[in-house]
Design a protein that fits this description.
Blueprint lengths: L1 E4 L5 H8 L15 E4 L3 H14 L3 E4 L15 E4 L6 E4 L4 E4 L5 H10 L3 E2 L10 H6 L7 H4 L6 E7 L5 E4 L5 H6 L10 E8 L1 E2 L6 E7 L4 H11 L7 E10 L4 E10 L4 H13 L7 E7 L2 H11 L5 E9 L5 H10 L7 E6 L19 E9 L2 H18 L3 E3 L17 H14 L17
Parallel strand pairs: 2-4, 3-4
Antiparallel strand pairs: 1-2, 5-6, 6-10, 7-11, 8-9, 8-10, 12-14, 12-15, 13-14, 13-17, 16-18, 16-19, 17-18
Helix pairs in contact: 10-11
The structure holds flavin-adenine dinucleotide.
Flavin-adenine dinucleotide (FAD) binds next to strand 3, helix 4 and strand 10.
C-alpha cells in the first residue's frame, strides 16, 4: 500500500497524488495529510486505522469526477481507489461485482466482451461508479431504465470501525438504503458494488437529432415534451441548449437515442417520433446507426478535461409550464462552451419510489454547465449559473446531488423524511464523523 505523507513527500509527487484524476480545474486548494493509494479491501481497513491513530478524517476518491471535488479536504487522509480496478461477472445470473473506480466506459467495454451485457452507466465515459452510484446515477435512458442505483443489489463496505460488511435488502439494510442516494454523506467506504445487469442493448443503437435556431424554442420544446409519454421505452430523450458560434445565437438540439438489440425496431421507434417534429431545423438526422463509443466520444467533446466547471441543476415541478419556466434560462446561455439541458424523467418519476435515499421526483430535470478554460471567463459563467438557478427556484422541487454543491438545506436533495433517516444512519455508523462530506462553506446542516 502506497502512502504519500504531505510532510515527507516531494512537492510534485504529493501534488500529483492529491490532484490525481481530479477532473475540474476549479478545485479547493486543500492539502490532505496523506494520500493512501488503496488497491484492496485490507488497504482501506489499514487507512481507517491510520486515520484513527492520526486523529484525522477520511476522504474517499473513486474517479475524481465530483464537480465540487468532494474528495479533497484539508488535513484528511485521502483514500484514492483509482488504481483498484476489478470486474467479475456471473453471466448466468447477470450480476457483476465491480470496484468503485471502474469507469462507465471500462465497465461497458468489459460487459460487452464478456457475455453481451450492459449497465446504465453515466453519459461521460470517465465518470467512475463510486461517486456516480452513491448519488443515484443518471445513466443511459434513466427515464425508463431508472437511476443506475436502482440496479445496485448489494454493496461491500468498510465502516468507521474498520469492519468489512456486506449490505443488501436483508443485511445492514440501512446502509444499503443509504448507498443508493446518500452521495458524499454515505457513512462508510464502498469497496465493491454488486450490480444487476441488462442484456446488451447496443447492437441496434440508433439516434435522431434535430437542431433548431433560437426562434424555434417554443415549438421545439413543446414538441419534445409532448412525445415523452408515448415514446418508445428504450429511447432516451434530451434537449440541449448550446451557443452556436456560426449563427451567433443559442440553438436547441433535440436528441433521441434508442438502444435495442434489434436495429429495425430502434429505427421504427425513431421514425415514429420523426413524424410529428416541427419543421425549421438547420441540421437533422433520423434513425442513424450509432454506437456507444461515438456517444461517449461526443460527451468527451462537450465536457472537455482541463477546464473550469461550475454546474447546478433542479428538478422542475410537474405543475408549472416548463417551457415558460425555463425560457429565460435557456435564452441567456452565454457564448462559449456552457450548455444547459432538459431531461425528462417520466415514467421513472411516476413509478412507486423504491425504498432508497434518493427520492426527490419530478418529470423534469434541468441542468446547467458553465465551462471555460479561462478562470475569469469561468467566473462570468458561474454568475450565469447562479442567476439561472435563482430565477427558477420557485419552479423547482429539489436538486440532484450529481451536479450541484449541496449548499441548500438537506430536504432540497432528499425528502424531509429521507434527510432525517440519513442523519440517523450517519449517526449510527459514523458517530465520530470519521468520513468527510462536502466542503465546509457548502453543505449547510451537514
Ligand atoms: C464530465 C462529467 C459528466 C458527468 N455526467 C454525469 C451523468 O451523466 N450522470 C450522472 O449522474 N452524473 C454525472 N456526473 C456527475 C458524477 O457522476 C459525479 O460527480 C460523481 O460523484 C463522480 O464519481 P467519481 O467516483 O468519479 O467522483 P469522486 O470525486 O471520486 O467521488 C465523489 C465523492 O463521492 C464519494 N465517494 C466516491 N467513491 C466512494 C466510495 N468508494 N466510498 C464512499 N464514498 C465515495 C466521496 O464523498 C467522494 O468525494 C458527471 C460529472 C462530470 C465531471
Amino acid at each position: 500500500m502506497q502512502i504519500l505523507w504531505r510532510d515527507h513527500t516531494g512537492e510534485s509527487a504529493y501534488d500529483r497524488a492529491r490532484w490525481n484524476n481530479v477532473f475540474n480545474l476549479e478545485r479547493p486548494n486543500c492539502s490532505p495529510r496523506a494520500v493512501i493509494k488503496a488497491t484492496c479491501t485490507e488497504d482501506v481497513v489499514s487507512a481507517i486505522k491510520i486515520a484513527g491513530q492520526e486523529k484525522c478524517q477520511i476522504a474517499v476518491r473513486s474517479g475524481g469526477h465530483s464537480m465540487f471535488v468532494w474528495s479533497l479536504h484539508e488535513d484528511s487522509i485521502l483514500v484514492d481507489l483509482g488504481n483498484w480496478k476489478e470486474i467479475a461477472v456471473d453471466a448466468d445470473v447477470k450480476i457483476a461485482q465491480v470496484t468503485p473506480s471502474v469507469t462507465g466506459l471500462e465497465l461497458n467495454e468489459y460487459l460487452h466482451a464478456n457475455g453481451q451485457l450492459f449497465f446504465p452507466t453515466g453519459h461521460c465515459p470517465d465518470v467512475a461508479l463510486g461517486g456516480f452510484l452513491l448519488q443515484g446515477g443518471q445513466g443511459w435512458n434513466c427515464r425508463n431504465w431508472g437511476y443506475a442505483c436502482d440496479w445496485v443489489v448489494g454493496v461491500e463496505v468498510v465502516t468507521a470501525e474498520g469492519d468489512v460488511v456486506f449490505c443488501d435488502q436483508h443485511k445492514n439494510a440501512d446502509l444499503y438504503w443509504a448507498a443508493r442516494g446518500a452521495g458524499p454523506l454515505f457513512p462508510a467506504v464502498v469497496v465493491k458494488f454488486h450490480l444487476r445487469l441488462l442484456p446488451d442493448p447496443t447492437a441496434g443503437l440508433r439516434s435522431s437529432c434535430y437542431i433548431y435556431p433560437a426562434n424555434m424554442y417554443r415549438q421545439a420544446f413543446e414538441w419534445v415534451q409532448s412525445v415523452v409519454a408515448d415514446a418508445d421505452q428504450d429511447t432516451e430523450i434530451v434537449m440541449v441548449a448550446f451557443y452556436c458560434e456560426s449563427r451567433g445565437e443559442v440553438c436547441f438540439k433535440v436528441h433521441f437515442v434508442t438502444m435495442k438489440a434489434d436495429g429495425l425496431a430502434a429505427e421504427h421507434a425513431l421514425k415514429q417520433l420523426h413524424q410529428g417534429r416541427p419543421p425549421g431545423t438547420f441540421t437533422e438526422w433520423v434513425a442513424r446507426e450509432d454506437s456507444l463509443d461515438s456517444l461517449f466520444s461526443d460527451q468527451r467533446m462537450v465536457n472537455p478535461p482541463s477546464h473550469y466547471y461550475y454546474t447546478d441543476n433542479s428538478y422542475i415541478s410537474n405543475s408549472v409550464d416548463v417551457t415558460e419556466a425555463l425560457e429565460e434560462s435557456f435564452m441567456t446561455l452565454p457564448p462559449g462552451k456552457p450548455f444547459a439541458f432538459w431531461y425528462p424523467m417520466y415514467p421513472r418519476s411516476r413509478r412507486p419510489a423504491p425504498d432508497m435515499a434518493l427520492n426527490v421526483a419530478s418529470d423534469h430535470y434541468f441542468s446547467v454547465y458553465a465551462i471555460s478554460n479561462d478562470r475569469d471567463d469561468a467566473t462570468r459563467c458561474r454568475t450565469w449559473v447562479e442567476q439561472t438557478m435563482e430565477r427558477i427556484r420557485e419552479s423547482a422541487v429539489g436538486s440532484y446531488l450529481g451536479e450541484c454543491d449541496l449548499k441548500l438545506p438537506h430536504d432540497w436533495y432528499w425528502t424531509k423524511d429521507s434527510a432525517r433517516r440519513l442523519a440517523a444512519i450517519r449517526q449510527k455508523w459514523d458517530p465520530g464523523c470519521l468520513f468527510c462530506t462536502v466542503h465546509a462553506e457548502q453543505g449547510e446542516g451537514v
